[in-house]
Amino acid sequence: MTMRILVLAHNHPSLHPGGTETVAHELFREYRDAGHEALFLAATNRLHREPHPGTSFQAIGDSRDEILMWAGHFDRLSMSQIDLYGFVPDMKNLLETFRPDVVHIHHLLLFGVELPTLIRRTLPDARIVMTLHDYYAICANDGVMMKSPQEQCAAFEQGGLCSCIEDVPAERMRLRERYIKTHLEAVDQFTSPSAFLRDAYVRWGIAGEKIELLPNGRPDVDAALARSTLCDARNVFGYFGNLTPWKGIEVLLRACKRLIEADVEFELRVHGGAPFQGERFVDEIDALFDETSARVTRVGPYRPEDIPRLMQSIDWVVVPSVWWENAPLVIAEARQHKRPVIASGVGGMAEAVKDGVDGLHAQRSDVSDLARVMRLAAGDPDLHRRLVANNRQPPSVAAVAERYLRLFAKLKAAPQNAAA
């Protein structure tokens, strides 16, 4: 059965190559290649594009089935789209023109949490599937479920209410919660790449049977060769991703400083930039890079297609995030290239990396413990070999897309009241 599938993400990977945007776009291409009529709609704002007069839509490259929707009028606290005169009529017109059988939402950021309700009212027979990639609906602090790197969000516990934003009264946060939950009722089926994230949404109030576990997939690639070395040492570490406070780059650099002071033989190669970060944070990590320059190389931003080449220069991938994460793309990429991962032992990271089996855990936000684990890894090539031997390849994006297509067909075959 051929379907029309509308795929929505809060950005386009060519503008912002984040994990959610990448996963959404890869699934879109698989739907299209499987013979379905697919359309990829990515939101954008002034960080990447200026608005065009008279329309919310913009082109992205030469593709006819990928478009941008300018959605700069967005209230981040309430996750609400407040442009009732531009965005809403244009979105309604797109839905009525394309008339998708299925709308696959990957994020409501910029679009607004009202989107599922708008879809339901415009296209009563369409099925709405939403993949949960983070905790944005639960926590107003950019969805990290942390009030600070040391304090978790109060909404992490069942019945808890997010209080991460200073000067926002509890009454307003409770209204935010109820408003978001009301609009999410229009979603027919949620999916989650990790059990940890699914369980967080169940505690928050989404029915468990309405959230299906469905992992993220990766395109097939040839694994990078092991790093060439004249000795047996496996002591070159790699960091991949944007440099942000929540990704733990500060913790990692301070751990490297400890290793340098202890005269440990190692190298760290940092891949990624620090776009849209505050001046204070940038100054702090710049200073740490200067202090660790004897052993740390700041490689800089990279493109997804660069990863196989960059992996050839490292032995380990370090994921030192101080928030819970969900299903970090970098862990799947490390697995594809048979690089064991050192990760913070919490959240989706602990679920993806089995401590002592195919990777190693370090305590979150703990400079001393991360330095300890890196020192162990750098000094034991046999440990590296054992972990590589237990490496688990991620599922292919084609296989994951096929599971989604079966889910879509099942929802379409069910009566509307059964699917909702």
UniProtKB/TrEMBL annotation:
Keywords, comma-separated and alphabetical: Transferase
Segments forming domain Glycosyltransferase subfamily 4-like N-terminal: 17-217
GO molecular function: glycosyltransferase activity
InterPro entries: Glyco_trans_4-like_N, Glycosyltransferase_grp1
Superkingdom per UniProt: Bacteria
UniProt name for this protein: Glycosyltransferase
Organism: Stappia sediminis
Lineage: Bacteria, Pseudomonadati, Pseudomonadota, Alphaproteobacteria, Hyphomicrobiales
